[in-house]
Amino acid sequence: MGRKRGSAVNKLFIWVRKQSMKVKIFLAVASVLSCLIVLRLLAKDTTQFFVASEFVHAAGIILLIYKLTKQKTCSGLSLQTQELTAIFLAVRLCCSLTMENDIHTFLDFATLASTLWVVYMIRCKLQATYNEDLDDIQKYYLVVPCVILAMFIYPHTHHCYLSKVMWAFCVYLEAIAVLPQLTMMQKTKMIEPSTARYVFALGVARFLGCAHWIIQVYESAGAYLFLLGTGYYLWLPAVLLAEVVQSFILADFCYYYVKSLVNGQLLVSLPPV
After folding, report:
1. Are 263 and 226 in contact (CB under 8 A)?
2. Is 112:214 a contact under the CB 8 Å cutoff?
3. Which tens digit of pLDDT belongs to each residue from 63-98?
4. Above 50 in pLDDT, residue 243?
5. Span 239-260, mean pLDDT?
6. Which phi and psi angles does 190 have, rounded to 5°?
7. If we measure between CA atoms, which residue out of 192, 223, 206, 173 comes closest to residue 35?
8. What is the pLDDT of residues 5-63, one digit of tens each?
9. Which of 17, 53, 100, 238 has a CA that sits 20 to 30 A from residue 111's CA?
10. Is the pLDDT assigned to residue 200 strictly greater than 80?
11. What is the pLDDT of residue 87?
């Protein structure tokens, strides 16, 4: 039974590959819309997507911890991505303590602690296995633009200016923090299972976060984007754009990850650029 299902799915992937770009785009859009409809039917409150997103992200970190403790290697992992993740989680935790102080705060703390442990292992315990030559995107190229953008486009709430800028900075940096990891994987072409599962978990987490905003915009007939009278004219469109950008960044890898699973491959292979 398992072989027949795998064969059928594999044939589906082969059929999709043979289609024109227009057909592929149509199929991708149809798949995304179908997932959004299912998620909306399953969840009464779309804010649950954010909680689910953070749980999935935490699950991805657990997979990394397993890799580092059991396999004793950090080969294929981007230290830059882990440190960028720690930066936006630390800033978001500071904001959450003053602006929310709820389950998101707890999840951010747990994920931050796990991420810092991963950074420590890569820098101190497993440095010999770290592919530094492949992880060459400098953090300030990503951090500085996010800071500048956050100073001008931020949520207009009753909190102080610094808190609002910090919150915006987290949103923007989170959207691009995975770029060093994806760039590193593109250079190696072959990604081992633990790293692949971690990045796939990030992709699922981002889709859940993006789903929240898309459903809100749809159900408000677009009015949610601009919330007249609240000063959100640029902030909410910027948030939605950041979520969509990150989802698209990860979507390509998720496709090849699922394809590798269907083909029964342990390693995920990426096509040449």
Report:
1. no
2. no
3. 888 888 888 888 888 999 999 999 999 999 998 887
4. yes
5. 74
6. -110, 125
7. 206
8. 446 656 666 676 666 766 656 666 566 667 666 766 666 666 677 777 888 888 888 88
9. 238
10. yes
11. 96
b (16+ CB within 10 A) / e for 113-140: ebbbbbeebbeeebeeebbeebbebebe
**Is pLDDT at 107 greater than 90 in this prediction?**
no
> HEC states along the chain?
CHHHHHHHHHHHHHHHHHCCHHHHHHHHHHHHHHHHHHHHHHCCCCCHHHHHHHHHHHHHHHHHHHHHHHCCCCCCCCHHHHHHHHHHHHHHHHHHHHHCCCHHHHHHHHHHHHHHHHHHHHHHHCHHHCCHHHCCCCCHHHHHHHHHHHHHCCCCCCCCHHHHHHHHHHHHHHHHCCHHHHHHHHHHCEECHHHHHHHHHHHHHHHHHHHHHHHHHHHCCCHHHCCCCCCCCCHHHHHHHHHHHHHHHHHHHHHHHHHHHHCCCCCEECCCC
Separation between Cα atoms, residue 226 and residue 151, nearest integer Å: 19
Could you tell me if residue 76 is left (phi over 0), alpha (psi between -120 and 50 degrees) or otherwise beta? Answer: left
Q: Which amino acid is at 225?
A: L
The greatest distance separating any two alpha carbons of the chain, rounded to the nearest whole angstrom, comes to 59
Q: How far apart are CA 91 and CA 89, in angstroms?
A: 5
| This prediction's pTM | 0.77
